[in-house]
Amino acid sequence: MELKTLDTLHEDTTYTQNVSDKMNGLLASFTVYYQNLRGLHWNISGPAFFQLHLQFETLYNRAAVAIDDIAERILAVNGKPLHTLEDYLQQSVIPQTRNVSDDQEAALTVANNIRLLVQAEKEILHAATEHKDDGTADLMTRLIHEQEKDHWMMRAYLGQ
Questions:
Q1: What distance in Å separates the CA atoms of residue 138 and residue 117, rounded to the nearest whole number?
Q2: Secondary element (H or E) of residue 18
Q3: Which residues have C-beta within 8 Å of that of residue 136, sequence separation ≥ 6?
Q4: Would you give the DSSP letter of residue 47?
Q5: Domain boundaries, the chain
Q6: What CATH topology corresponds to 13-158?
Q7: Residues 12-66 pLDDT 10s
Q8: DSSP for 88-115?
């Protein structure tokens, strides 16, 4: 009996390379965002400690799920997900956050991080829609939906 290899579902290799690269950038950015949230969760202090400590934990738990979903989607379109800290730091559009304990600065940092993630997700969504890549488009739509709400909540916390 001869074993046959399965054809990839996405035959446009130029597109799959392009979308994999974009999703790897998003994967890197999400990983830095995740670690920023961990640091904020650990270091937040002041009157809003309990509220933000819990909120940052909720956000980093969701970010961990998103990281796995993005990496698996990269594999599904025949790409290879980044996995080293060096690669993440080089490719992330989100800067590392250090020594933030103030509630206002922390919420503003998270809101700005989310804004950058949504921008990247919308770029990927546009490419995926154009190439009828429903799986990638669906993932990006879900992430955008969640993060637009998170962004609104951080802005509301800041009184904006």
A1: 16
A2: helix 13-43
A3: 19, 23, 73, 77, 124, 125, 128
A4: T
A5: 13-158
A6: Ferritin (1.20.1260)
A7: 788 999 999 999 999 999 999 999 999 999 999 999 999 999 999 999 999 999 9
A8: HHHH-SSPP--S---HHHHHHHHHHHHH
